[in-house]
């Protein structure tokens, strides 16, 4: 179950959040390890993720969006080799925290909530790619005991592939 605190609220994104989510995405472009650009992620991705009920937000007590992540049946990585025990995996994508709030534990809080919600939705594992140069993200995923299982060149960048089986 998702645990909200007085300081932070975790929830699925809603259609009226789209412009603020896009602002979060755009604010991250150019930060260390980020492979995003002006074309990706776009409003089209946001709308699709919201429709799929796969886009999550972490907000402050004023309702301002601080961090976002997509997790669900994206099937963007289905062609890669993964642990066969993941019979119903979700894919994590487009995770980010406002640059002014990075390195404060917000990504950990968001990722923990996303994992718990994905488990409650019946997923038995999570898989994703992370830029080889995004060292902060890699440290986060290592902290959560995700396994690095390979490297892949996609979308014009080098990525590490990670996964985790859920208990």
TrEMBL record:
Keywords: Acyltransferase, Transferase. Residues 8-167 form the N-acetyltransferase domain. The keyword Transferase applies. Pfam families: Acetyltransf_1. Gene3D superfamilies: 3.40.630.30. This is N-acetyltransferase domain-containing protein. It comes from Clostridium omnivorum.
């Amino acid at each position: 179950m998702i645990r909200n605190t007085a300081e932070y609220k975790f929830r699925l994104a809603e259609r009226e959040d789209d412009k603020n989510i896009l602002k979060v995405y755009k604010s991250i472009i150019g930060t260390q390890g980020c492979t995003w650009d002006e074309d990706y992620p776009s409003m089209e991705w946001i709308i699709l993720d919201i429709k799929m009920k796969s886009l999550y937000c972490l907000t402050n007590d004023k309702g301002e969006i601080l961090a976002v992540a997509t997790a669900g049946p994206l099937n963007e990585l289905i062609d890669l080799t993964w642990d066969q025990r993941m019979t119903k995996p979700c894919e994590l994508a487009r995770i980010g925290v406002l640059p002014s709030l990075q390195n404060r534990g917000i990504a950990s809080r968001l990722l923990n909530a996303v994992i718990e919600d994905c488990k409650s939705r019946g997923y038995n594992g999570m898989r994703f790619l992370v830029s080889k140069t995004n060292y902060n993200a890699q440290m986060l995923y290592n902290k959560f005991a995700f396994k690095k299982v390979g490297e892949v060149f996609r979308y014009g960048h080098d990525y590490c592939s990670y996964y985790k089986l859920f208990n």
